[in-house]
């Protein structure tokens, strides 16, 4: 009967499973872990296994619950199952995200108690969003108005606390960037409880608490879903793993967990890889399966990726292989700077055949997306952006530069000068500036008003003449040099450096934003064209970031590329402090390799997005300063050299 199912699968559906895939499908009762390498067909196996359980083992569809990492993944499984098996196997089994499953449990409790909670991360009648609430609490506790980046950092840290179930007494063990995080968390939780609100992570937390304390509810869920399948389990957080453990704990229940510990890349937001690495300890009688054959990538890419990831120590032993033929060597390109890097990528893109949607640029830093978007838009090449939240155009540094430039066009533009009067070298007092403002009119600009009514000392007046000259000069200079004048002559650089510390930014971060603005400004003729260009680019990137499917070249953070694949992949900005990051390198030097292994996994995931054409680009200089080549690029070169030596010996 088993052969009948698989023969029919091959003859009618065109799906021929490998021996490793078939073993996973045939697994019967009891818990099991399937380690699935990139491109090994895990989604196909999960869909086929579901059909096999229903048809060959007689398991009712409603007793099978498949939990996935994302809405897209759940939809893809549902679509594939429907296309392959449709109504032939009876009712559709449930494919769901774990958040959707937990939402159902939470809503059951709401109906039981008569207390209806509102979601503050979507449309609601409460009137405030999660970010607005957190902004207000941050300001109340820390006595300062946070930037958008600071609020996003706070939201991420609160999510991290919930997903890892960190108790208050252990907050100090974590390097949280937000001051008074414990107090803010408690006020936020109390506010939500008072107004019967919940956020995205509360669905998990509330469901976990309900399942843990309500034995009857837990037993009903265990009886309803005795067969539990979990996809992308390496990305599950601790609270998600605890929920899964509760559901799988029923008498006779079976858990089929699919994961790849080498693709754990979300630890920064609470992923708990220990559940996969210690699966045999949690479920001592479990069976371990592997799917190691990659159907996606060329032999060169698979061989390189497999040997590269073996450098990590904390992993299940496995070896990714492929029967795909060799296509072309992996390209390693060492260029002078980020501009030369972009020029190389654009020229190579133009020379490659095939649709633009099969070409992707992968990066760590969202500023890289701005540079590529600027160049692509000017050349009329369509693009899609993944993982970019558009904060660049709302960043305080960008707004400050806008204000400097706007004021240089009109010395009566007080709304622009309001934002920068204390961010330059004039040393104006708030009172003196406020008094002078009231005397600005058609005949008298701000500089005249300051000289006459600003209460300035003689040395300040002398400085003011120089500043008026420097502001006037901005209109006459190329935009990149105008920004240099703002930094150096008008004193903004020193203020921004000190201001960055209180906003969770580094000096290098400010310098990189200014460098990006200089790059955009180089091709603009005049200040107004530059300001208009920023608006146009912001709109273009916003449109490129909301498309349901890719149109044109794909620009993506490495994290957002997970689950995707392309014919041509360009990994850029490969230098130390970016990839791998500075903190990972520092921790490794101090004997803690955990962060570096996490970064190496991310590099591995990026490489395995490519089907046939992979390019690794190292810049020798970034933002005008020499940089060290990426440690990972050095490791790649060592792997390739070793491969050449091995091949030479085999021939000899």
TrEMBL record:
Residues 15-298 form the UvrD-like helicase ATP-binding domain. It comes from the Bacteria. It catalyses: ATP + H2O = ADP + phosphate + H(+); Couples ATP hydrolysis with the unwinding of duplex DNA by translocating in the 3'-5' direction. Gene3D superfamilies: 1.10.10.160, P-loop containing nucleotide triphosphate hydrolases, PCRA, domain 4. Its EC number is 5.6.2.4. Keywords: ATP-binding, DNA-binding, Helicase, Hydrolase, Isomerase, Nucleotide-binding. Residues 299-563 form the UvrD-like helicase C-terminal domain. SUPFAM superfamilies: P-loop containing nucleoside triphosphate hydrolases. Coiled coil: none annotated. ATP binds at residues 36-43. Pfam families: UvrD-helicase, UvrD_C. One of its GO terms (biological process) is recombinational repair. One of its GO terms (molecular function) is hydrolase activity. It is an enzyme of class 5 (isomerase). InterPro entries: DExx_box_DNA_helicase_dom_sf, DNA_helicase_UvrD-like_C, DNA_helicase_UvrD/REP, P-loop_NTPase, UvrD-like_ATP-bd. PANTHER family: ATP-DEPENDENT DNA HELICASE SRS2 (PTHR11070:SF2), UVRD / RECB / PCRA DNA HELICASE FAMILY MEMBER (PTHR11070). Belongs to the helicase family. UvrD subfamily. This is DNA 3'-5' helicase. The lineage of its organism: Bacteria, Bacillati, Bacillota, Clostridia, Eubacteriales.
């Amino acid at each position: 009967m088993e052969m009948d199912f698989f023969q029919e699968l091959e003859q009618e559906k065109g799906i021929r499973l490998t021996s490793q895939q078939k073993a996973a499908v045939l697994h019967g009762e009891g818990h099991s872990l399937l380690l699935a390498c990139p491109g090994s067909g895990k989604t196909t196996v999960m869909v086929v296994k579901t059909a096999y359980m229903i048809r060959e083992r007689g398991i009712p569809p409603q007793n099978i619950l498949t939990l996935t990492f994302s809405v897209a993944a759940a939809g893809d499984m549902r679509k594939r199952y429907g296309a392959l098996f449709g109504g032939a196997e009876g009712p559709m089994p449930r494919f769901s995200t774990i958040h959707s499953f937990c939402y159902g449990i939470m809503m059951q409790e709401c109906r039981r108690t008569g207390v209806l909670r509102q979601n503050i991360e979507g449309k609601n009648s409460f009137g405030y969003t999660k970010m607005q609430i957190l902004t207000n609490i941050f300001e109340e506790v820390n006595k300062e108005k946070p930037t958008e980046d600071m609020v996003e950092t706070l939201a991420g840290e609160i999510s991290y606390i919930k997903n890892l179930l960190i108790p208050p007494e252990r907050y100090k063990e974590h390097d949280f960037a937000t001051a008074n995080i414990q107090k803010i968390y408690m006020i936020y939780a109390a506010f939500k409880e008072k107004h019967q609100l919940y956020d995205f992570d509360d669905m998990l937390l509330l469901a976990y608490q309900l399942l843990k304390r309500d034995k009857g509810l837990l037993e009903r869920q265990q009886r309803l879903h005795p067969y539990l399948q979990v996809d992308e389990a390496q990305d599950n957080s601790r609270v998600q793993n605890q929920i899964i453990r509760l559901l799988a704990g029923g008498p006779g229940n079976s858990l089929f967990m699919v994961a790849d510990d080498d693709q754990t890349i979300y630890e920064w937001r609470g992923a708990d890889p220990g559940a996969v690495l210690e699966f045999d300890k949690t479920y001592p009688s479990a069976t371990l399966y592997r799917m190691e054959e990659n159907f996606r990538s060329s032999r060169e890419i698979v061989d390189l990726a497999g040997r590269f990831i073996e450098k990590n120590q904390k992993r299940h032993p496995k070896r990714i292989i492929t029967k795909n033929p060799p296509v072309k060597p992996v390209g390693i390109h060492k260029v002078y700077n980020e501009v030369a890097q972009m020029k190389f990528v654009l020229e190579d893109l133009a020379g490659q055949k095939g649709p633009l949607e099969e070409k992707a640029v992968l990066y760590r830093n969202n500023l890289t997306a701005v540079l590529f978007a600027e160049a692509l838009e000017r050349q009329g090449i369509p693009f899609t952006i993944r993982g970019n939240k558009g904060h660049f155009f709302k960043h305080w540094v960008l707004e400050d530069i806008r204000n400097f430039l706007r004021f240089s066009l009109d010395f009566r533009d007080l709304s622009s000068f309001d934002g920068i009067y204390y961010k330059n070298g004039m040393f104006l007092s708030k009172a003196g500036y406020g008094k002078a403002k009231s005397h600005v009119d058609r005949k008298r600009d701000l500089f005249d008003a300051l000289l006459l009514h600003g209460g300035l000392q003689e040395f300040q007046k002398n400085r003011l003449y120089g500043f008026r000259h420097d502001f006037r000069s901005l209109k006459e200079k190329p935009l990149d040099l105008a920004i240099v004048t703002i930094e150096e002559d008008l004193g903004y650089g020193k203020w921004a450096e000190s201001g960055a510390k209180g906003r969770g930014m580094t000096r290098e971060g400010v310098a990189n934003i200014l460098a990006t603005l200089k790059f955009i400004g180089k091709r603009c003729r005049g200040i107004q064209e530059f300001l208009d260009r920023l608006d146009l680019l912001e709109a273009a990137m916003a449109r490129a970031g909301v498309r349901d499917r890719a149109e044109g070249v794909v620009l993506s953070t490495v994290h957002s590329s997970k689950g995707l694949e392309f014919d041509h992949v360009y990994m850029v900005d490969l230098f130390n402090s970016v990839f791998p990051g500075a903190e990972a390198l520092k921790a490794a030097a101090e004997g803690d390799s955990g962060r570096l292994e996490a970064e190496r996994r991310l590099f591995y995931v990026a490489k395995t997005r490519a089907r046939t054409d992979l390019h690794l680009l190292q810049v020798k200089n970034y933002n005008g300063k020499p940089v060290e080549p990426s440690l990972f690029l050095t490791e790649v070169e060592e792997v390739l050299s070793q491969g050449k030596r091995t091949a030479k010996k085999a021939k000899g």
